[in-house]
Amino acid sequence: MKLYIAVGSVMLLMMTLFIILFVAFYQHRQAQHLLALNALREAYRKELMAATFQGQEQERRRLARDLHDEIGTMLSVTKLNVNQLDRKIPDVHTGALLLVQKTRALLDETMSNVRRISRDLVPTTLERFGLLAAMEELTEKATTGDVVVTLECPDMVDRLPASTQLLFYRIAQELLNNAIKHAAASQVNVQFVYFQDAIRMSVEDNGQGFDYDEAVKDRRSGLGLRNIESRLTVVDGHVTFDVAPGRGSRIHVQTQLTEVVNEELHIPA
């Protein structure tokens, strides 16, 4: 009887141990499955966002081409017609001549705005000469009588991948616009710094600042901030907002560099 009890106890213990091991194995498989599923979801999300931003750039190019080829051409032809009309109006009709001159001035201003919008949509300087020249042009345009924008940028940024250069340029556009138009800053400094395996762009201003949480809640004003974060997640980058109402803002955008890029930039590991 004791033997039967001992054998039964051993078998019960073995069954209990088997059940525990089976449950542990099942939970481990489930955890691995969830990790793999989350990795697939994250990869899909990144691919979807990358495709979204690529589509946005293509749409920008289409709009820029339409502005230059169609609207720009129509404005040029209209200006030629106005010039011909000006030559045919007798000098005695001063009122008509003044109206023609005003119309010509409006056409010149409109054509200038069309060219500016077209350049903003597609940064031709970035494509032709690289990020350094594009950033110099961007900061120079942003500098006015009321705003001084300075740039600290090493020339090695031109050896970054084209996609990374476009990423920093678009983010710089957004941050400069926020600092000048929304934060009413009079001084803005843009600085690029290299690390062993990363590059960081810092934008600092002396504006009135803002509440990050409140800004993100606003569907319109927070769209630009969310776009910055979304762009960076595609390349495993991140952004730090050192902001508060009533004081200047410091925003740091950082992304990792691959070993190949580090070698090309001659950055020691």
Automatic annotation (TrEMBL):
PROSITE patterns: HIS_KIN (PS50109). The keyword Protein biosynthesis does not apply. The chain crosses the membrane at residues 6-26. The keyword GTP-binding does not apply. SMART domains: HATPase_c (SM00387). InterPro entries: HATPase_C_sf (IPR036890), HATPase_dom (IPR003594), His_kinase_dom (IPR005467), Sensor_HK_TwoCompSys (IPR050482), Sig_transdc_His_kin_sub3_dim/P (IPR011712). GO terms for molecular function: ATP binding; phosphorelay sensor kinase activity; protein dimerization activity. Keywords: ATP-binding, Kinase, Membrane, Nucleotide-binding, Phosphoprotein, Transferase, Transmembrane, Transmembrane helix, Two-component regulatory system. Coiled coil: none annotated. Its EC number is 2.7.13.3. It is an enzyme of class 2 (transferase). GO terms for cellular component: membrane. Gene3D superfamilies: 1.20.5.1930, Histidine kinase-like ATPase, C-terminal domain. Residues 62-259 form the Histidine kinase domain. It catalyses: ATP + protein L-histidine = ADP + protein N-phospho-L-histidine. This is histidine kinase. It comes from Fibrella rubiginis.
